[in-house]
Amino acid sequence: MNEGPATSASEPGDTPLWRPSAERAELAQLTAFRRFAAAHVERELPDYAALHRWSIEAPNEFWGAIWDFCGVIGERGERVLVDGERMPGARWFPEARLNFAENLLGHPGSSLALIYRDERGLRRSWSWRALRDEVTSVAAGLRSVGVGPGDRVAGFLPNLPEAMIAMLASASLGAIWSSCSPDFGVRGVLDRFGQIEPRVLFCADGYAYGGKTYPSLERVASLLPELPSVERCVVVPNLIDPTHPDAELERAISAAGLVGALPWRRFADAQPTGPTTFEQLPFDHPLYILYSSGTTGPPKCIVHGAGGTLLQHLKEQRLHVDLRPDDRFFYFTTTGWMMWNWLASGLACSATLVLYDGSPFEPRPEALFDLAQDEAIAVFGTSAKFLDAASKAGLRPRETHRLPALRTVLSTGSPLVAEGFDYVYDAIHPDVCLSSISGGTDIVSCFVCGDPTGAVWRGECQVPGLGMAVDVFDEQGKPLRGEAGELVCTRPFPSMPIGFWGDSDGRRYRAAYFERFPGVWCHGDFASLTEHGGMVILGRSDATLNPGGVRIGTAEIYRQVERVDEVVESLVIGQQWESDVRVVLFVKLREGRMLDEELRARIRRQVRAEATPRHVPAVIVQVADIPRTKSGKIVELAVRDIVHGRPVRNREALANPEALELFRDLEELRPGS
C-alpha cells in the first residue's frame, strides 16, 4: 500500500499531500527506466533531478534510450539529433522509418482494446483483434478512394470508437488525420477543414449531450459544397442504433440530401481485405493537424509529426503516468481537444482505452464516477473545471463509490488550484497520484508532468517533463527564480510542430513561438518554479493583468474568488482605465443569488487576505454566463476585446458565443461610473 495523503498544508510548501510507498516507487516504470538508462550510459542517476538533468544535457542518449526502452516498432537508424543547436530547425531520428498506427496496434494487451460508453447508457467494446480487423477494413476503403501518404482525412465526429478507428486507418496509410467535435457550427468547421482540404470526411448522424439529441446530417450537407476537396463522405450511426441494418441510416442520409455519402458499414466492408499493412515513413512524416482555439483570428493549423508524437506520448504515459498493460485508461475529452490524440496513444502502452461521449453530469451528476467504478478505471483524466464543478456540487465518490483500481488522477485544461488538490484527496480517493499536467495543442504533449515516484505538493505541477528544458524567463529573457514569468523551453524536443499548414516559409510558425526570445520556445503561459522542483501555472501570459505595471496571473485571482461559496465561476480581465489598467472581475453566482455590496466586500476581502492588495478587483460585475471554448477554456481575451469595443473574430470557436453579448457596453465599465 502507498503511504496515502499527508496532512493538507494551508499553502503549498509545508507537507506533501501524498507520497508513494517505497514499493510503489520501486515498481514504477520511471524507476525501471532510470536504472536502464544509468546502465546504458554508465552514469549515476540516483533520483528524478539527476535523470532530468541528464535528459537535457545528453538528448541523443536520452531520446535513443526512450526509443529502446519503450520498444518502438520501426528502424531507428544511427543518428538521433541533427542540428540540435537550432531552435527551430533541429531534426530528430533522420534515418528512422516507422508507422504510428503500427505502434498503437502492435503491442496488444491481454484484455480489451477499446470500451465505449455514452450518457444514454450504451456500451460497446472491441478486442485487440477486432480493432485491428476494423482498422484494416477502413484502411482498404480509404485506399480504394486513392488516399495515400500526405492526404488529409477529416473527422467531424463525437468521441466514438469509429473516430479512433478512422484515425488509425488513416495513419496506417500515411494520411494526415484532423478532427473536430460535432458541436461546431458550419463556419467553425470550414475555418478548419477548409484550410487543409481533406479528401475524405467522416461524420456521424448526430450526437447526444445533456439529455438532448442533436442531428448533424443537415449541417454536413451544407458543409460539403464548401469543401470541394472531399471525394467521399462516410456516415457513422450514432443517434440511429449502430447495431441496426444500414437501411435506416441510408434513409437519413437521403433525407438530408447527402448525395454519394456511404454508411460506415458499407464503406468498411466494400473492399476485400488482406493482412494489415503499415506504410513505413520518415520520423517527421505528418500525422495530425490540430487547431489553435482561434478566438483572436482564424485558427492556426498545427502540423504534428508521427515520430515525435509517438515518442513524447510513450515517455509521458509510461514514465510520467506509469500507464501499464491492460490498465483501463480514461480521459474526458472530445475529438476537438488534443487530449483525444493523447489518449489514443495509450494503445501503444497496451492499455485499454475507455471512451465516453456526452455530458459528464448526465444522466446524473456522478456519471463519470459511475464510469470509473463500473469499468475499473486505473488512470482517470479530467479537467480542473470538472473537479471544481464536482466539488461545488458536493460529490464525494470516496463515500459513494468503490474505486479500488484507481491509481492516478490527471488534470489539465486550466490550472488546478490548491483547493482542487484538497478535493481530490478528501472526496475522491486518498491514495492516488494526482498529476496536474500542462502543455498544449501546440506541442500535442506536456511541458510539466506527473512523477509517480515523487511527492504531490498542494497546488503544484510535480516536475518538468523528461527531455524538456523548461524554464521561466523575465521580460528581458533572463531566468527567474522565486518569481512568476514566461514559461519557456530552451532546447529542441521531438514533438515540436513540423510547422503550420500553408505556412511555406515558416514565418508564422517562428513568429508564434520564437519571436519573443530568439532561439527559445515561448509558450505563452505565466508560471513560476517551486522549491520542490515543480511548477505553478498562473494562466495565459497574454491574459496577464498589469495594474500599476505589476504583472499578475489570473489564476491567482480565480483561486481566491472561487473559494467564495456563492461564486460558481468567474472571469477576470484588465480594462484600460485613466492611463493605467484596472482589474475587472465578472462572477457567475449560484442560482437565485444576487451580487450585493456585502458579497462584493467579502470577495475583495478574500482576495486581499489570501493574495495581495494589487489582486483586488476594482470592479465586480455579475453575469449570467461565462464564455468558453469548445474544449472548456474561458476566453479572457475575447471578453477583453468586447469590453474595449473591439471585434471578436471566429466566434465559432466558442461553445456559447451568445455569452459574449453579456459583456458588451456594461454601465459599470463606462467612464464616470
Task: Explain the layout of strands and helices.
Blueprint: E1 4-5, E2 18-19, H1 22-27, H2 29-41, H3 48-57, H4 59-69, E3 74-75, E4 81-82, E5 91-92, E6 97-98, H5 100-105, E7 112-118, E8 123-127, H6 128-144, E9 152-156, H7 161-173, E10 176-180, H8 186-196, E11 200-204, E12 206-209, E13 212-215, H9 217-223, E14 232-236, H10 246-255, E15 262-263, H11 264-269, E16 281-282, E17 286-291, E18 301-305, H12 306-320, E19 328-331, H13 338-344, E20 352-357, H14 367-374, E21 379-383, H15 384-392, H16 397-400, E22 408-412, H17 418-428, E23 433-436, E24 438-440, E25 445-449, E26 463-464, E27 470-473, E28 485-489, E29 499-500, H18 507-513, E30 521-529, E31 535-540, H19 554-561, E32 567-577, E33 580-589, H20 597-610, E34 619-622, H21 636-643
Parallel strand pairs: 7-20, 9-10, 9-11, 11-14, 14-15, 19-20, 19-21, 21-22, 22-23, 33-34
Antiparallel strand pairs: 1-2, 3-6, 4-5, 6-16, 7-8, 12-13, 17-18, 18-29, 24-25, 25-26, 27-28, 28-30, 30-31, 32-33
Helix pairs in contact: 2-4, 3-4, 6-7, 15-17
